Amino acid sequence: MTARIGVVTFPGSLDDRDAARAIRVVGAEPVALWHADADLHGVDAVVLPGGFSYGDYLRAGAISRFSPVMESVVDAARGGMPVLGICNGFQILCEAHLLPGAMIKNDHRAFICTEQTLRVENVETAWTREYAPGERITVPLKNQDGQFVADERTLDELEAEGRVVFRYVDRNPNGSRRDIAGITNAAGNVVGLMPHPEHAVEPGFGPDGPDGPRSGTDGRRFFTSVISALVA
After folding, report:
1. What's the CATH code of the domain at 118?
2. Tens-digit pLDDT profile for residues 153-171
3. Which of 115, 148, 121, 124 is nearest to 218 (CA)?
């Protein structure tokens, strides 16, 4: 059976079609979900894509958190459904309290768009099971509210429980505490990260890789991981 993975579109979403294409490239079926529709239409997993939902008014993700679809996403996530939040999606997951901490303006106070190296810290989640512990991957990064912050107690808990999924290496592009680029919930089904794996799934369209310019496909295994998790 083909996995059906929903991609939510909010007002101001930018990367919903890119996420849907990434899902299609790995052989799953992308299902368009609308922010004002609480029905998840029987999907097996959900992606909250990047962008600037509601123009990032108030705080990034603060308004989207109250969209009708999010009530269903929160319930499904708490029931074990895999949910991935990318960039603005990560911000929404924090606002919805599916993940701890918050996202604030980059420490340099500017938008950044670059290729970013990450170290994989946790391969036990639904979205990372096909990576290797300690593996370095390169995916695009683009944000202006990408600085992950939390109090020291929360950060210590994330570290102690192995819930840091990715760290920035070589440089910290936005000032995130402890170089954290992505985290997971305790159950491992909800993952949020700032970089964009959906932009690194096809040769010719991703970051530079070992096979030459634009050859990087390190983001592809996010989506193959969840497929394997769903059939396990």
Report:
1. 3.40.50.880
2. 999 999 999 999 999 999 9
3. 115
Q: Rounded to 5 degrees, what angle do the CA atoms 11, 13, 1 make?
A: 110
Q: SS3 breakdown of the chain: % helix, strand, coil, rounded to 5? A: 25, 25, 45
Each residue's pLDDT tens digit, 219-232: 999 999 999 999 87
Give the dihedral of Cα atoms 119, 78, 46, 198; nearest 10 deg.
Answer: -10
Q: What are the DSSP calls for 17-41, one per residue?
A: HHHHHHHHHTT-EEEEEETT----T
CA nearest to 222, candidates 199, 210, 231:
199
* Bridge pairing between strands 102-104 and 45-48: unpaired
> Residue length, the chain?
232
Looking at the structure of the chain, the number of domains it has is 1
Q: The domain containing residue 110 runs over which residues?
A: 4-231
- What six digits make up the tokens of 214? 């634009």
The catalytic residue positions are 87, 196, 198
